[in-house]
Design goal:
The complex is a heterodimer of chains A (253) and B (480).
Chain A: E1 2-8, H1 19-30, E2 35-41, E3 54-57, H2 62-85, E4 89-93, H3 95-99, E5 103-105, E6 111-113, E7 120-123, E8 132-140, E9 151-159, E10 162-165, E11 173-177, E12 187-188, E13 190-192, E14 195-198, H4 209-224, H5 236-247
Chain B: H1 11-30, H2 38-46, H3 50-55, E1 62-66, H4 71-84, E2 89-91, H5 99-108, E3 123-127, H6 133-140, E4 144-147, H7 155-158, H8 161-173, E5 180-184, H9 188-191, E6 200-206, E7 235-242, E8 245-250, E9 262-268, E10 275-281, E11 284-290, H10 295-311, H11 315-323, E12 331-337, E13 340-345, H12 350-363, E14 371-376, H13 396-399, E15 402-408, H14 412-422, E16 429-430, H15 434-444, E17 450-454, H16 457-469
Parallel strand pairs in B: 1-3, 1-4, 2-3, 4-5, 5-6, 6-9, 13-17, 14-15, 14-17, 15-16
Antiparallel strand pairs in B: 7-8, 9-10, 10-11, 12-13
Helix pairs in contact in B: 1-2, 2-5, 4-10, 4-11
The chains are: A alpha/beta (253), B alpha/beta (480).
Chain lengths: 253, 480
């Protein structure tokens, strides 16, 4: 089997260890003899919607985010939207998650338009409001039709913006401990078709191996059919890291 | 900060001095934190202008060292140069770099009547936390501020690297021409401070491009300032050393690395050191062997040499002081333990960790077998609660060279996972607590070989305490 990953803006959207997500996807595929190809797409590079089964975009500082927002909209936006509407898997973390929403509004009122893949928006309340920083645990509901039992996601969040889901948006998970999207409504992340958005970095996927496998399985089913099942691999170290991250917030699996 | 606060010592100051001393003594007796900052904390509560009042008595003024990495080593090098020049210095102990730590150091040198001993002769040399710089600049009125570099670090505390950059810009904007900024020309985020105010500027940098990293920029994942701070365009590098440190130029607005005043013209990195250096300064050339390894220590030596120049210390003092330099607390400090050599290298953020990993990798001699490692990952407040930075550090550099690894600390499980993904062929042994972890690592290191200990900040304090208990070096609070 073969998995083609597009890593968007790896040199810019890389502040919180999000590279670990790519390392994790690569490792988990290779451990099962699945070929992996990671294509890094930077500013100016076009995105071919037929060339990838999985898209990843990480987070950055506000300044860098402004820098790539324009490129994301005008150079890649249409093709990325098309890919996601056709079922391509995507994971957008933190700043990337915000840019996959409709817009990001700064406290000054200035607005940065996103791709609108998720029906959500983000507001930055200004430098006087505290950032939402800390360990986070959230619960993803089971998706039996996709062959996934759901489970806990554990990691770290650090964001100034508050994200609010519109009527057309489905949350990814329910916050058990931490802030999540906005620290108020109890939701964390969003999902649209096979695109997942989340504030959790740390990195997210390495210590949440079940979720990582879910993304890989969804992506492989596009090219290899619906009966793709991933063989179990040695996850002792992954599970120990997951459990350790849960313990930080007093949570259990 | 209040510039008009009276600099004379009144009853309040004397009460603050007495209370601080008492608190420091109590803390030392109870062995909690060594009492390095407690005394200052208590005293500053009673007299918030205490540090300002006492620092004003230092006849040779103050120098401040700030930046993400290299503060402790640079400040210590500068103190060594001052000592060589016969100038009595007053410094805060390693890592005690908030205002309370500065106050503690001043307090310790002050008599009951509020007079700093030998005050008129002394030079203050203080390492200052990046975010504490505005307060320190106001209170200490430094003659010289040395900026080493700016990297991502403790983002759970600062939010973003840009927050620190903005804080520095604002601080520099308020300085006048009585202050000299000593700036790292190789760091675009630091070099740009030259334009932020009226202060005088002295720059340092590495001219010898033979030590540049072939794969960089982009070779390292932790590169924080790839874009021009003025116009936002991507910077081009004629030579990149590590992170975003190198010979940079903005192809859009033309801003570029300034020609440094103090520059390393010849750098010969040799394994665990010493590093042979030639440094050109406006007062002539220095040539010596620096007893530390790694390019980051070359930058520290340049920062100290430039700082000494800015302070008017005689250049004849720099060469012997740096040639005889003894590593600071946990920064390539060496010990002998149970017949093994032990080196402690602090690694607390991705850029610093990459330099440590490169230094260890370079020290690896295949004929003596693989490396022996003891790695810690703690997520205490002083470490940063967010440990995701380990995913940006390039542990791959040592993956194939390691013979044994013990991992420890509050987040050891995450570190184990990072090492697995880095391609470590051996499975590290996880030992939660520092004491048994040290024992396990020593047991795995053959007699006569080197054990590399790489702790985060709070783990370094633990290790230091353990080594001190085994008769190695004095407790850090007993050092100047």
């Amino acid at each position: 089997m073969h998995l083609r990953i597009a890593h968007l803006y790896p040199r810019v959207m890389n502040v919180y260890g999000d590279r670990g997500n790519i390392l994790c996807l690569t490792h988990r595929c290779r451990a099962r003899s699945i070929d992996v190809e990671v294509t890094e797409l930077g500013t100016g590079d076009r995105f071919d919607p037929a060339a990838h089964e999985l898209i990843f975009i990480g987070g950055a500082q506000d300044r860098e985010q402004r820098r790539i927002a324009e490129d994301l909209r005008s150079v890649k936006g249409e093709a990325v939207r098309e890919a996601i509407e056709s079922g391509v898997v995507a994971l957008a973390v933190c700043g990337g998650y915000q840019l996959f929403g409709r817009f990001y509004r700064e406290s000054s009122g200035a607005q940065l338009d996103g791709l609108g893949i998720f029906d959500l928006w983000t507001e930055h309340p200004g430098q006087n409001e505290p950032r939402l920083i800390g360990n986070i645990v959230a619960e993803v509901p089971p998706a039996p039709e996709e062959g996934w039992p759901g489970g806990t996601l554990a990691g770290f969040e650090n964001h100034g913006g508050r994200t609010y889901l519109g009527e057309g948006a489905k949350p990814l998970a329910r916050v058990r401990s931490g802030f999540g999207n906005n620290g108020k409504d109890g939701w964390e992340g969003a999902r649209h078709r096979n695109a997942f958005g989340s504030y959790i970095h740390g990195s997210l996927l390495p210590k949440n191996p079940s979720f990582a496998d879910h993304l890989i399985a969804l992506a492989l089913r596009r090219t290899h059919g619906d009966d793709v099942r991933l063989a179990p691999i040695d996850d002792r170290i992954e599970n120990a890291a997951h459990d350790a991250a849960l313990r930080l917030t007093g949570s259990r699996r | 900060m209040n510039p008009s606060a009276p600099l004379r010592t009144g009853p309040r100051t004397l009460a603050a001095l007495a209370a601080g001393r008492l608190a420091g003594a109590a803390s030392r007796v109870s062995r909690r934190g060594g009492g390095t900052a407690v005394a200052g904390l208590v005293a500053q509560r009673i007299d918030p202008h205490l540090a300002q009042r006492l620092a004003a008595q230092l006849g040779r003024g103050c120098a401040v060292v700030t930046g993400t990495n290299g503060k402790t080593t640079t400040a210590r090098m500068l103190a060594a140069i001052a000592a060589e020049a016969g100038v009595p210095a007053l410094a805060n102990p390693s890592g005690s770099n908030l205002m309370r730590g500065v106050a503690s150091a001043l307090l310790a040198a002050t008599g009951a009547l509020g007079r700093v001993r030998d005050g008129p002769d002394r030079l203050g040399i203080f390492e200052i936390d990046e975010a504490t710089l505005p307060e320190a600049a106001g209170a200490l009125r430094p003659r010289v501020i040395i900026f080493t570099n700016l990297f991502r670090d403790q983002l759970d505390r600062y939010g973003e690297v840009d927050t620190v950059a903005r804080l520095w810009q604002r601080t520099v904007a308020e300085l006048d021409a009585n202050t000299t900024l000593v700036l790292n020309a190789d760091d675009p985020a630091v070099a740009s401070l030259a334009e932020a105010g009226r202060a005088r500027v002295l720059t340092f940098g590495i001219d010898d491009v033979r030590v540049a990293d072939e794969s960089a920029p982009g070779g390292e994942h932790a590169s924080d300032y790839r874009f021009c701070l003025a116009c936002g365009e991507e910077l081009a590098y004629a030579a990149a050393f590590f992170g975003h440190i190198g010979h940079w130029r903005c192809q859009s607005c033309g801003r570029a690395r300034p020609e440094p005043d103090v520059r390393a013209t010849c750098v010969e990195l040799v394994g665990e050191g010493p590093t042979r250096l030639k440094i050109a300064t406006p007062q002539g050339e220095l040539a010596f062997a620096l007893p530390l390894a790694g390019l980051y220590n070359v930058e520290n030596a340049l920062a100290a040499a430039a700082g000494a120049l800015a302070l008017g210390l005689p250049s004849s003092a720099t060469e012997p002081a740096l040639a005889a330099f003894r590593a600071a607390f946990g920064r390539q400090e060496r010990f002998q333990l149970d017949g093994r050599s032990v080196m402690v290298l602090l690694g607390k953020n991705p850029t610093g960790m990459n330099q440590v990993l490169r230094t260890i990798a370079a020290a690896h001699a295949p004929e003596s077998g693989g490396l022996h490692l003891l790695l810690f990952l703690n997520d205490g407040i002083a470490d940063g609660r967010d440990i995701s930075w380990i995913w940006d550090a390039d542990y791959e550099l040592i993956a194939g060279r390691t013979a044994s690894a013990v991992i420890s600390g509050t987040r050891a499980e995450e570190l184990a996972l990072r090492l697995k993904y880095a391609g470590f062929a051996i499975e590290p042994e996880l030992v939660r607590d520092a004491q048994p972890a040290l024992d396990a690592a020593l047991a795995r290191t053959p007699v006569g070989q080197m054990l590399y200990i790489v702790p985060t900040y709070t783990a370094m304090l633990e290790i230091r305490e353990l080594l001190a208990r085994r008769g190695q070096r004095p407790h850090f609070w007993e050092e100047a």
